[in-house]
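Fold it.
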Amino acid sequence: MKNKKVKIAIVEDDSSQNKVLTNYVSAICEDKAYENVKFDIKSYTKAQQCIMDLENDLDIILIDYYLLLIGDPDVLTGEDIVDCVKSFCPSCDIVMISSQEDKKMLTKLIRKGITEYIDKNKNLINRVESVVQRLLLRRELSAA
């Protein structure tokens, strides 16, 4: 992964969880294994802003399924963002982060093309690290 740029977006409506997740992903990307990689990490608390900023060369996006914005008539779910990302940036790896327990919904998201699902209630931080590292490694191998 020499001199490669990797773009990562994080969409989490809870500002404190967003900050923790963004800081953690940034820390993962500072590992010496990625010293020849330039990371562009963008964080969003509003789904609409993420959709407006979508770039067709986005590599990885981490999305919360439930994106509540009180008083906003245009509330979007993670599923809505999956649809937008897949149509605009089909090679982007989509990681859904949620406490979604509806198996039908999870199956639907997998069919729509999410790469990974991480349960917020089950070892979130370790799973995020594992998934992000695996996706970065896969991108490194495919870029070789």
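The chain has one domain: 4-143.
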